[in-house]
């Protein structure tokens, strides 16, 4: 490491993430508007850390780098838990809404790219440079950014493609975490929607202890942990089979599918009433999933290097302000209406900001914050991860290729 770079080792980074998650929860409890608008607690703690590291960089010229290797494992545990809580009957019912959401997200990608290309032209840049501030960095996330940026540099001559993409992804990730909850709260109140009040959440536990149907024992956690590990092993096996067949999927999608397979095979074997409780493992799964998701998002925000925005700040801020405005209007006026104008639709709307501006994890953490306050939305937690984590990546790659000419 260079003299002005300070590396925080893995165990220390993980422990700091726990402390930051506590800090986020404390802030949400202390400042009522944060809870009222369902601002995710991990966002508060993670962004606090990112702000502190930015201050250290600008004032003391110290670059803090965190070892975040465990972060990706937490994401696998989270999606394994989502799969294990997924009833195939809800998945079948979600077929039509899933298709509608995919079409909506696909149309939005085109609009997103046209907007960013227009902004790039307004700044006198190659319009295709705007794609780095469109669906590449926002809908696609950091992985898609890292994949496309070298091609834009080598084939299109856009030298700062990587910097533009990373800067856009940074701002988009923060924005996605902040707009989802307020959008859902506005829709619920504006349309007088009836929340489900269902305490059987896919992720986490209800905001008030009175909504928890039964206490969680250490055996509930142990059962859940065992099923999660078995799901991760099966998901790894799925990944190997797909790779050998020439198909590449994100690891978390394989774990999600593995969880769905295990859950529904068990349900078919021993009956729906018995599987529903798993000796309490369902609540254990929800709790572990909540912790893993919160820790993942805290660590993702910890790793943000806000100073990278410096060289392209005006261009990025202009483009992202317009992108965020477009996302809010599209979600409220179109996504909510097309998805049914009900409580499930409001939860999906909360997640759409993650689809459009952030990542699958931000989509889920937005929906989690809403459901912990208003009750479960089972269908939303099936179709949004599938659209975010699988289908939309294929559509996005095709649209980027067509619009960039690569």
TrEMBL record:
Subcellular locations according to the entry: Cell inner membrane
Main location: membrane
Functional note: Catalyzes the sodium-dependent transport of glutamate.
Transmembrane helix listed as a keyword: yes
GO cellular component labels: plasma membrane
Record's protein name: Sodium/glutamate symporter
Keyword Iron-sulfur in annotation: no
Transmembrane segments: 6-23, 43-60, 98-119, 131-152, 164-188, 247-266, 287-307, 313-336, 348-369, 381-403
Species annotation: Pseudomonas sihuiensis
A biological process from GO: L-glutamate transmembrane transport
Gene: gltS
InterPro entries xrefs: GltS (IPR004445)
Keywords: Amino-acid transport, Cell inner membrane, Cell membrane, Ion transport, Membrane, Sodium, Sodium transport, Symport, Transmembrane, Transmembrane helix, Transport
Recorded coiled-coil stretches: none
Recorded GO MF terms: glutamate:sodium symporter activity
Membrane topology note: Multi-pass membrane protein
Family of this protein: Belongs to the glutamate:Na(+) symporter (ESS) (TC 2.A.27) family.
Database matches in Pfam families: Glt_symporter
